[in-house]
Structures are given as C-alpha cells and as structure tokens.
Automatic annotation (TrEMBL):
Pfam families, per database record: NPHP3_N
Domain NACHT: 46-193
Database matches in InterPro entries: NACHT_NTPase, NPHP3-like_N, P-loop_NTPase
Lineage: Eukaryota, Fungi, Dikarya, Basidiomycota, Agaricomycotina
Key words, A-Z: Repeat
Leader peptide range in chain numbering: none
Protein's recorded name: NACHT domain-containing protein
Length: 518
C-alpha cells in the first residue's frame, strides 16, 4: 500500500500468497469466480459469497483469486483478511480497502485527500456506515468511468470478525449498498455459513451464493491427493497409494491434509515417518477430524501425560497468544508473558511455541506476529470438552494482561522516546521518523499503550491495578504515553481511553479505597 492518504490502515490484513491453492487444484470453483469477475453481463451480482465449513479451503481460494487478479493480471483490487484476535479490525475494513484502491486510482487518492482535509473526523471514525459512504461509495461514484477494467475486492473470513454485532453493519452494507458502486466492481466474501451471515446474504438479490459443498467430493479428493503428493515428494518410502489414503482420510478437509503432511514430514521423537502415517490412518473415529489431528500433534509434543510444570507453562503462554487483541511477535509475547506471571521467563514463549510451528504462524520469524494458522485451533484449545488435558482457560486472562501492559508502560515509557533532535518540527517533517518509531517503540510497548484500558475495563476492581494506573496517569508517564500514541497516529484514542479508566476508577475509589480524581 503506497497511498499517503491519512486514514488508518490494517497492517497484516492483506494477501498472503503462501496460502493460495496449489497450482492445478480447485480449478472448477476458481474458474467460476474468475468468470464472474470478468463477465460483461450488466446484471451480474457484484457480491459473491463463498461459504463452507472450517478447514475446507475457503481462504486458499480467496488468496488465489487475489493473487491472480492483483499480481498475475496486475488488476486494481484489495484483499482484506479478518482474524479473530484482531478484535477491532472490522473498523478498518473500509478505510484499508479505500487506501488500497487509492494507491492505484489517482482520482480516488485526490478525492480522499480533499475529504480528510475538510472533514478530519472521517480519518478516525469507527462508524463503518459513514466509512463506506464517504471513503468508498461517494468518491467512487463521482469518478465512475475513470476505471474501465474490473476492480476486485476480496474479504476473507468475515465470520472471524468481532461477533455478529460488529459485522451486522458490514453485512447490511454489502447486501444493500454494494450495488451502488460502479458496475465493474466485484466483492468476493468468504466465511463459514454462520446464521447471521446466511440470513442477510441469502435474502439479498445482489449477492451470488456459492458453497464449498457443491464441489464434487471426487474433485476435492483428487485435489487433496495432489496436495499431499506435492508436500511429501522426496519423503523416502511414500508413494501414490499413501497419498490416496491420506486424501480418503481427510474427509474433504484441506486443513487436515496440511497438518497431516506437516506431522509426517517433520517427524521428531520416537515415531518414524511411517509410524506417524499409520497413526493417522488408524486414528479413532467419531470425533471431529481436526480435533483428532490437534490431539495427535499436541500429544506428540507434550506427551500423553505431561508433567504439571509442562502443561502449566503451555497454558500460561498459549492463553497470552490467544487473548491479545492484536497478534504479537515472539519477543513481545515473551515480555508480556513475563510481566503477566511476575517473573522473568525469557525463553518460556520460545520453548512452548517453537514446537507448535505446524499450528501457529510466525513462530520461525522473530518479527512476525504469532497467531493460530486456523481458527479451529483457537476454538479447540479454548473448549474444555474438545481439548481435554490441553484446555487453555482464557476467562481471567484480561487481569494478567492489564497487569502486564501497565508494567510494560511503567518500565519502558520515557521522555523523547524516539530521540528526536528538535521538538519544533512536525512529525511529517522528520525524514526518518518511521525508522525511529520502529526501532524505539517495540511492539510490546505499542500494544500496551494502545490496549491497556481494553483489558482493564472488563476485569473486577483491584487495588493493585488501580495503583499502577495512578503510577502512569498522575505523573510525567502520562505525557510519555500520549507521546507514543501521537507517534503511532493514535492520539485520537486518548479521550475515550481516559473515559474508560475514569469510570473504572470512580467505582474502585469506593470499592477498594483508592483515592483518584480524573
């Protein structure tokens, strides 16, 4: 994204070509979607909803379409992927799409710059209806005809947005107002067939419905066999018969096949690759197939009966990974984890997470945020009946994260954190400000400054946390906190954050005896 329009952008929400379909697979549905994108039929619906159960490969199709259009065809478009950990990402959906399109449509960029200059509040509004109308619908309608080729917008995993309430307005907009865009616009949406999504899209005349269920089981089995063959090529002793068995066992779930190949290919410990394959083929039936796979992988890493110290460390790390409001890289998770357990555990996150590379993204790259590779793993770990001994209880994690964020701020906030030579220059006048911010404001500090009140507001009152808040807000640390938010272009959040903490502390003043005035 190269546009310099000053509105928030959702980093890390874009296309990931490593998630695209293997060449030669899913050709039937991909050809249908490509035909819909390029059709000249004026009556073609402008929204296509592709639904299907978890693990069937919807995201791979979404990334394949985005890669085909924006990289192979060099077409104008945007790809936005929801993630259940990024709880406010729905507020950045339409601004991010607008910025992506503005980077390729000069007239839109000019229009948005004029708009934000005349109405600065639009740059930070959380009102998705206003975002859609002002940042997309109206400016694109005004320049209709300026872009002749199709414009493709891919919205992946809408079901992972922050609950039915947060996505209700997005659904309404896509179902009702997408048709108000120029007729060459196409919006591909993927999700599980959740009731709230199904009810809106199924009754919308401007939405084309496609489901993974309509794909031929034989075609899906063939594609999974091709995928398994590609993944295990070169693994000694494996051949076509094994790939056929893997495809048959997968029950149409590409995510199961991916995990199975990872489990076999990177065998460590007592079992050989062949023994791991046989274990998968004879896994107990009657459970959700992905749950069975998660159990097999976790038992291979932690053991059938892990020691209390091992499972407690596993849970203490995973509850942080699963509960941060934005995914964080390894070093930052280590800092928050150590602060949450009130003791230094420099390698705890690495020791726990590194063996889970087949289940979590970002584990092998120190700068990448770590998150579950598939939403079902998050659901598995946090549902006691499904994960059993590996259950991760996140019910009270906000208390620990509140402590951790406040501790991080107390330790790391300081005067002139980016070591700027002059306070008289505007941020926009500092040539290397971006590099300074990256080097001086680590992700754990940026996260803590942005989200500490979100963790505080949902926990019971506690004197220790109230005292830590006083330690930030009643001295110069408050100015340092605001400076960080200003450098991150988030200073507009300060009033609402102070309002949250004021309400919390007004009650705590009475309940826990902490005297504090805002």
């Amino acid at each position: 994204m190269s546009s310099d329009v000053r509105i928030p952008y959702a980093e890390g929400a874009g296309i990931d070509t490593t998630k695209a379909c293997l060449e030669g697979t899913r050709t039937e549905i991909l050809d249908e979607i490509k035909g819909w994108v390029t059709t000249t039929d004026a009556n073609a619906p402008q929204v296509l909803w592709l639904s299907g159960p978890a693990g069937t490969g919807k995201s791979a199709i979404a990334h394949s379409v985005a890669r085909w259009w924006m990289e192979e065809k060099r077409g104008i478009g945007s790809c936005f992927c929801f993630n259940r950990q990024a709880t406010t990402r729905h507020e950045r959906l339409f601004p991010t799409i607008a910025l992506d399109l503005a980077a390729r449509i000069p007239a839109l960029k000019v229009s948005l710059n004029k708009l934000i200059t005349s109405q600065p509040a639009l740059a930070t509004t959380a009102d998705v209806t206003q975002q859609w109308r002002k940042l997309l619908q109206e400016p694109l309608t005004n320049i209709a005809g300026g872009v002749a080729e199709p414009v493709v917008i891919v919205i992946d995993a809408l079901d992972e947005s922050d609950g039915p309430l947060s996505r209700s307005h997005i659904l309404s907009i896509l179902a009702r107002d997408a048709a108000k865009l120029p007729s060459n616009f196409r919006i591909l949406v993927t999700s599980r067939p959740l009731l709230d999504i199904d009810e809106v899209f199924r009754n919308a005349s401007g939405v084309r419905l496609e489901t993974m269920d309509k794909l031929s089981p034989l075609s899906t089995k063939h594609d999974i066999q091709l995928y398994s063959s590609w993944r295990l090529t070169g693994v000694e002793g494996f051949g076509d018969q094994d790939f056929t068995q893997l495809a048959g066992k997968s029950d149409g779930l590409f995510e199961w096949a991916r995990l199975a190949c990872e489990y076999i290919q990177y065998a460590q410990g007592v079992l050989t690759k062949r023994e791991r394959f046989e274990e998968l083929m004879h896994a107990e039936e009657g459970k959700e197939l992905l749950d069975t796979m998660y159990m097999i992988i976790l038992r291979s890493i932690l053991g059938d009966r892990p020691r209390n110290s091992t499972i407690n460390r596993f849970r203490s790390v995973l509850r942080i990974v699963l509960s941060t409001l934005e995914p964080l890289p390894m070093d930052s998770l280590n800092v928050l984890h150590s602060s949450s357990v009130r003791q230094s555990q420099d390698r705890a996150c690495y020791d726990v997470l590194h063996p889970l590379a087949s289940l979590l993204s970002g584990v092998s790259n120190q700068s990448m945020p770590i998150r579950p590779l598939h939403s079902t793993f998050h659901e598995f770990l946090t549902t006691r009946d499904r994960s059993g001994p590996f259950f991760v209880d996140v019910e009270d994690v906000n208390r620990d994260l509140a402590h951790a964020c406040l501790q991080v701020m107390q330790q790391h906030l300081c005067f002139n954190i980016c070591k700027l030579e002059s306070s008289y220059l505007r941020n926009s006048e500092i040539a290397d400000l971006g590099e300074r911010i990256k080097g001086c404001i680590k992700p754990y500090l940026a996260y803590s400054c942005q989200f500490w009140t979100e963790h505080v507001k949902v926990i019971p009152l506690e004197a220790g946390i109230a005292e830590k808040i006083k330690g930030i807000l009643l001295n110069e640390k408050m100015l340092f906190w605001m400076e960080v938010l200003a450098l991150l272009k988030l200073v507009h959040m300060v009033p609402s954050m102070l309002s949250i903490v004021a309400s919390w502390l007004q009650v705590s003043k009475v309940t826990v005896g902490v005297k504090f005035e805002v």
